[in-house]
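Quick one, C-alpha cells below. Sequence please?
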C-alpha cells in the first residue's frame, strides 16, 4: 500500500493504524466536526502532485457587458459596464474559471474536511469569485458587500435547493452541501438575473479553479492512477488520465476549443 489509512476512534480519541509522524503528516488542518470511521491519510513521504494549465484555442468570444440598466443601484457601482464571466480568456492564451478535480482513482474512505470556510461575496451585483470549489460539508461563507438586496438561489441537482434573501451588508450566511456535486452547482440571484456563480462540491481536497494564468495545481496526492476532469460552463468537460508515481510531480494540460 502506498498510502496509509487512519482509523479514528471517536469514543476515546485514540488513533490506531497511523504511520509515524502523524502530527505533521497532514496538509489539511482541522478535521471535520464529525468524521466518520475511516479517514484517509496521505503519506507525505510518497505523495506527489499534478500541475498543469488550461489552454484555449479557436475563435475568441468577445466579452459581453452585463446589462444592469434595470437596476440603477447596481449599474452605478460600475464606471464601465461589468463584463460577463462565462468565458474569460487570459492574456497568456489560457482559460479562466475552469473547475478541475480528481474524478476517479483516489483511495476509498473519507477525507478530513477543513473547518476553514470558503468565501463567496456579492460585489457590484456580481458574485465573487465566479467559480469556486468546496469540500462536502465544508462551510461556505456568503456575504453581501453591496448596498442593495440580493437573493441567493443555488440550483443543485443532488443537494437541497434553497433560496434566501440577504440585505445590504447583511449578516454572513454560512452554508454547507452534504453531497458531492460536479458539474458545479449554479448559484443565481432572484433579484438580478445576470448574477451567476458556480460551486463545485467534492468529497476530497483535490480540486482547483484556474485563475488569471490558467494554471492549476493538485498537491499532496497519494501515488496512483487518476482521472482528472476539467469543467467549463460554456465548453463542457474534458478528462485526462494521469499516473502519479511516488514523489513525482506530474503534468497535465487541457485545451478547450471554441
Ligand atoms: Cu443580486
Amino acid at each position: 500500500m502506498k498510502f496509509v489509512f487512519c482509523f479514528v476512534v471517536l469514543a476515546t480519541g485514540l488513533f490506531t493504524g497511523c504511520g509515524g509522524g502523524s502530527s505533521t503528516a497532514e496538509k489539511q488542518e482541522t478535521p471535520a466536526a464529525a468524521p466518520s470511521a475511516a479517514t484517509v491519510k496521505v503519506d507525505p513521504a510518497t505523495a506527489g502532485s499534478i500541475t498543469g494549465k488550461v489552454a484555449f484555442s479557436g475563435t475568441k468570444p468577445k466579452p459581453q457587458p452585463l446589462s444592469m440598466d434595470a437596476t440603477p443601484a447596481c449599474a452605478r457601482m460600475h464606471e464601465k459596464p461589468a463584463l460577463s464571466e462565462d468565458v474569460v480568456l487570459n492574456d497568456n492564451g489560457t482559460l479562466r474559471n475552469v473547475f478541475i478535480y480528481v474524478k476517479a482513482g483516489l483511495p476509498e474512505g473519507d477525507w478530513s474536511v477543513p473547518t476553514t470556510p470558503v468565501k463567496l461575496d456579492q460585489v457590484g451585483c456580481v458574485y465573487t469569485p465566479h467559480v469556486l470549489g468546496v469540500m462536502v460539508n465544508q462551510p461556505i461563507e456568503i456575504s453581501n458587500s453591496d448596498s442593495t438586496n440580493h437573493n441567493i438561489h443555488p440550483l443543485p441537482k443532488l443537494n437541497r435547493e434553497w433560496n434566501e434573501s440577504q440585505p445590504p451588508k447583511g449578516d454572513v450566511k454560512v452554508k454547507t452541501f452534504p453531497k458531492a456535486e460536479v458539474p458545479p452547482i449554479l448559484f443565481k440571484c432572484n433579484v438580478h438575473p445576470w448574477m451567476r456563480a458556480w460551486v463545485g462540491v467534492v468529497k476530497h481536497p483535490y480540486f482547483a479553479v484556474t485563475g488569471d494564468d490558467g494554471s492549476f495545481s493538485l498537491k499532496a496526492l497519494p501515488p496512483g492512477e487518476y482521472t482528472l476532469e476539467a469543467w467549463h460552463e460554456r465548453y463542457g468537460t474534458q478528462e485526462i488520465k494521469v499516473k502519479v508515481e511516488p514523489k513525482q510531480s506530474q503534468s497535465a494540460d487541457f485545451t478547450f476549443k471554441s
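The radius of gyration is 20 Å. The helical segments are 22-25, 72-75.
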